[in-house]
Amino acid sequence: METYYIIFMGRVQGVGFRYYLQNYAQKLNLKGTVKNLDNGMVEAYVSGDYDKVELLINTMKSANPYIRIDDYHIKKVPYKEFKDFSVRY
């Protein structure tokens, strides 16, 4: 299992993005956190297999007509253990 740090850019705040991400991550049995940033972006730490993380990202691109992911950056970080997938404030 691996942990990834992901930054999402686009229309990702005020459109339910964090809750869609949390819901789908839980369906994929991924663990981690998601949080809005002050600059309008959203950050997520996701622990799980890369193929499921990739599926999560691709699903978010079409999860909701109000969500628009213009770009994202993903990098592998040292493994973090999370109990579940939660929204942070």
Task: Give a structural overview.
- This protein has 89 residues and is an alpha+beta fold.
- It has one domain: Alpha-Beta Plaits.
- 25% of the residues lie in helices and 42% in strands.
- The chain is built from 2 helices and 5 strands, in the order E-H-E-E-H-E-E.
- The chain has helices at residues 17-27, 50-60, and strands spanning 2-11, 31-36, 42-48, 68-77, 85-88.
- It has a 5-stranded mixed beta sheet with strand order 4-1-3-2-5, with helices on one face.
- The longest helix has 11 residues, at 17-27.
- The radius of gyration is 12 Å and the shape is globular.
Radius of gyration: 12 Å
Q: How many structural domains can be distinguished in the coordinates?
A: 1
Oligomer: single chain
How does CATH name the architecture?
2-Layer Sandwich
Helix percent reads: 10-25%
Per DSSP, the total helix count is 2
CATH topology: Alpha-Beta Plaits
How do the strands line up in the largest sheet? 4-1-3-2-5
Summary tags:
alpha+beta, 89 residues, 2 helices, single chain, Alpha-Beta Plaits
What is this structure's SSE topology?
Elements: E1 2-11, H1 17-27, E2 31-36, E3 42-48, H2 50-60, E4 68-77, E5 85-88
Parallel strand pairs: 2-5
Antiparallel strand pairs: 1-3, 1-4, 2-3
Helix pairs in contact: 1-2
Short overview:
With 89 residues, the protein is of the alpha+beta class.
